[in-house]
Design goal:
binds FE2/S2 (inorganic) cluster; 5 helices; single chain; about 30% helix; alpha+beta; five-stranded mixed beta sheet
Length: about 170
């Protein structure tokens, strides 16, 4: 019997991350979450369940909130990816981050990047979202620490920053 020698397949993929063009060589089976964390060293994207359940890995792809554990890195070809690092500001907290801090909307912080990216995507499209809508959208993000009330309050309080200034 002849044993087949396994060959490691590597594919190039190019996309934009937080405004920078990147080109990486990855195995076709590598998830986008692993690519961001282990290849690009953007460890702000957390990985909890790896099954699309907890929301910790949520990032933005072309403006939409997406679970990076459910997407292959090669599927990001040509996309604009924004991670929690891309929503941060070196000089100051963003209004959403500041609101999370003001409302004590995090404890261990594991869920926080996913909460912030999901809330950012929501408020970018629906700056008038009410508490019910925020609860509905964030229901796919699990938090073991806070009890959620402070998170909802933080997102509600951040809405003003997403409203367009009057003409
Ligand atoms: S790690 Fe992706 S949804 Fe839980
Ligand atoms: S702050 Fe700990 S899981 Fe949400």
């Amino acid at each position: 019997m002849r044993l087949m020698q396994s060959r490691r397949v590597i594919m190039p993929v190019r996309f934009e991350v937080n405004g920078n063009s990147v080109s990486v060589d990855v195995e076709p089976r590598m998830t986008l979450a692993d690519c961001l964390r282990h290849v690009l060293r953007l460890t702000g994207t957390h990985v909890g369940c790896e099954h699309g359940v907890c929301g910790a890995c949520t990032i933005l792809i072309d403006g939409a909130a997406v679970r990076a554990c459910l997407m292959l890195a090669v599927q990001a070809e040509g996309s604009e990816v924004v991670t929690i690092e891309g929503l941060s500001n070196d000089d100051a907290l963003t209004p959403l981050q500041a609101s999370f801090r003001r409302h004590h909307a995090l404890q261990c912080g594991f869920c926080t990047p996913g909460m912030i990216t999901t809330a950012h995507a929501l408020l970018s499209e629906e700056p008038d979202a009410d508490a019910d809508r925020i609860r509905e959208v964030l229901s796919g993000n699990l938090c073991r620490c806070t009890g959620y009330i402070s998170i909802i309050d933080a997102v509600l309080d951040a809405r003003a920053a997403y409203k367009k200034p009057p003409p």
